[in-house]
Amino acid sequence: MKTLLVTGGCGFIGCNFIRYVFEETDFSGTVVNVDALTYAGNPESLADLAQAHPGRYVFVKADICDKAAMAEVFDRFEVDAVCHFAAESHVDRSIVGPGAFIQTNIIGTYILLEEARKRLGKIKRFHHISTDEVYGSLGPDGYFVETTPYDPSSPYSASKASSDHLVNAYHRTYGLPTTISNCSNNYGPYQFPEKLIPLMILKAVEEMPLPVYGDGLNVRDWLYVRDHCTAVWRILNEGREGETYNIGGHNEIENIRVVQTVCDILDEILGTTPNGTRKRLVTFVKDRPGHDRRYAIDATKLFNELGWRPEESFDSGIRKTVQWFLDHEEWTNHVKSGEYQTWVEKHYGG
Ligand code: NAD
Ligand code: TYD
User: Fold this and answer.
1) pLDDT grade, residue 343 (50/70/90)?
2) Which phi and psi angles does 250 have, rounded to 5°?
3) pLDDT digits (tens, 9 = 90+) for 26-46
4) Which of 26, 114, 259, 296 is most deeply packed, by most CB within 10 A?
5) How far apart are the CA of 218 and the centre of ligand 2, in A?
6) Does the CB atom of residue 195 touch ligand 2 within 6 A?
7) Alpha helix locations (H) across the chain?
8) Domain ranges in the chain?
9) 22 CB less than 6 Å from ligand 2?
10) What is the per-residue pLDDT across 302-320, written as a single tens digit (0 to 9) for each?
11) CATH homologous superfamily for 3-189+224-250+295-312?
C-alpha cells in the first residue's frame, strides 16, 4: 500500500483516522484526503498535518459524486488502497432531508467503486466504513453479529445499508478486494456538535437546556473514536477480502445516563453552577420518528480473527472527551459560530 485514498478525512472519524495513521502506525506512503467540505467537514482539524508531513499528506477538495474528479485523483496519485469514510452521517438531518444521503452515501460510494473497478489488480483494498444502524433496532436482549439481517429504520441507515450491499456486490461480481466494518456509536475529539455527546458537552458548559429525546432510555453502544481507528487500520491491512467485521467495545448505555455522566464530569471539573448541578438542565423533548431503541455490537469475529481490543472504557473515554472539548475552545468556537466555514471559503474558495 503506497497511496491510501481516505474519503471524508475532514470529518470526525476521518480526521482521527488520518491522525492515527501518521502518529501511531509505520505507514510510510502517502495519504490523499478527498473531502467536499460540507457543513461537517472542517480542515482546521488537520491543519498541522500538511506542514508536519510535507508530500505525505495531500488534501483534495472534491465531491465523491464527481466522477471526473475521482478518476483524476485515482490516476494522479496512483491510488492503490481506499478507506471510505465520506458520508452524510446524522440521522436527524436524514429525516428532514434524505436527498443528500441518497446522493453521497449511495451514488458517491458507487462512483468510488466504479473507479476502483476500472483499476482492478492495482487496487489492493477498498475498505468501506459503515454503521451498526444497518441492522435496525434490538429489543432488551441480544447483539448484532455480522449475519444479522439488515433492517434499517432511518433514511441515513437505509442509505448506508444500500452502500454496504453495493460494496459486497462489487466483491462477488467483479472480485474487487473489499472489506466492510460496521461500527457502533463513536465519540471523542473533533466530533461535530450535532451528535449527542459533543452537543451535550457544549450546551452544559453554557448552561443551556439538554434535549433528551423521548424517555431517554434508548441504548447506544459507545466506542472511543481512536479505538474505531485502530480497528479500521487492522481490518484494512489484515482483514479477509469480501468480509464484514463488526466493531464495538461493549459499552451499552442509556442516553439519559450518558447525559448525566457528562454533567457530573463538568460539575467536577468546573464546579457546580450557582443554580446547582448541571443535571437540572436535562429537558425531555419529543421523540425522534423511527427512533431505534437499542444497539449492541458483538465484535467476537474481530477479536478472534484479528486480535483487536479497545483501549478505552466508557469512563476513561468520556473523561478524555469532555476535557478535550474544554481544552479546544478555539476549535469549538469556530464550529459553533460557523467561522470554520469562513476559513474554508478563504482557503478553498467556498
Ligand atoms: P462526519 O459527518 O463527521 O464527516 C463526514 C465527512 O464526509 C465530512 O468531512 C464531509 O465534508 C465529508 N463528505 C460528505 N459528503 C461528501 C461528498 N459528497 N464528497 C466528499 N466528502 C463528503 O461523519 P463521521 O461521524 O466522521 O462518520 C464517518 C463515517 O463513519 C460515515 O461513513 C459514517 O456512516 C460512519 N460511522 C459513523 C459513526 C459515528 O458514530 N459517527 C459510527 C459508525 C459509522
Ligand atoms: P446521535 O448522536 O444523533 O447518534 P445516532 O442517532 O446515530 O445513534 O444520537 C445518539 C442518541 O442520542 C440517539 O438515541 C438519539 C439521542 N439524542 C438525544 O436524545 N438528544 C439529542 O439532542 C441528540 C442529537 C440525540
Assistant:
1) low
2) 55, 60
3) 999 999 999 999 999 999 999
4) 259
5) 9
6) yes
7) 12-24, 49-52, 67-76, 91-96, 99-101, 109-118, 155-174, 196-205, 225-238, 255-270, 300-306, 314-327, 329-337, 339-348
8) 3-189+224-250+295-312
9) no
10) 999 999 999 999 999 999 9
11) NAD(P)-binding Rossmann-like Domain (3.40.50.720)
